Amino acid sequence: MQGPHLGQRPVPPRGQGVAEQIHHRAVTLNGSATITGNTAGRRGGGIFNWVGTVTLNGSATITGNTAGRGGGGIFNLCGTLHGAVAGAGGNVFNNKPDDIVSVCA
After folding, report:
1. Among the four 9, 18, 62, 105, which has the fewest Cβ within 10 Å?
2. pTM score, two decimals?
3. CB-based contact 62:87 (threshold 8 Å)
4. CB-based contacts of 38: which residues, under 8 Å, 6+ apart?
5. Is the confidence at residue 100, as pLDDT, over 90?
C-alpha cells in the first residue's frame, strides 16, 4: 500500500484496517501510507497478522486504531514484522489499548 491512508471501516472481531486477517501473506506499507481510525472488536485494530509478514517502509504509520482485547495497532500471531517500531518516536503509536502485541503459541 502506498499513498494516503486506509481508515474507518465497519467493526469486525479482528483485523480491521488492512484486511480481516493476513494469513500466510505479505503486506507492505510504503511512503506516507497510514492505517488510522479503525476499530476491531477483539484484536488487531490496524492489522491482524496471522503467520504473514508486515513491512513498514519510509514514513508509513499505524496510529489511532483501537482493539477490544489487544493489538490496537498490530496484533501479530506467529508472523514476522519488519520496520514496525512501537511507541513515541516509532511508526506504530497512539493505538489503544496498545501498539503492537506479538504472540506465538
Report:
1. 105
2. 0.84
3. no
4. 6, 7, 8, 9, 16, 17, 45, 46, 65, 66
5. yes
Range(s) of the domain holding residue 9: 5-103
Q: How many whole angstroms separate alpha carbon 37 and alpha carbon 23?
A: 22
Nearest to 16, CA basis, from 31, 2, 36, 34: 36
pLDDT, tens digit, 9 for 90 and up, residues 1-56? 444 455 554 555 555 566 545 678 899 999 999 999 999 999 999 999 999 999 99
C-alpha cell at 34: 497510514
Q: Which of 65, 3, 53 is nearest to 28 (CA)?
A: 53
Total domains, the chain: 1
Q: What is the CA radius of gyration of the chain?
A: 12
CA distances from 83 to 6, 14, 30, 51, 96 (A): 19, 22, 11, 17, 20
pLDDT of residue 105: 81
Residue 78 has pLDDT above 70, yes or no: yes
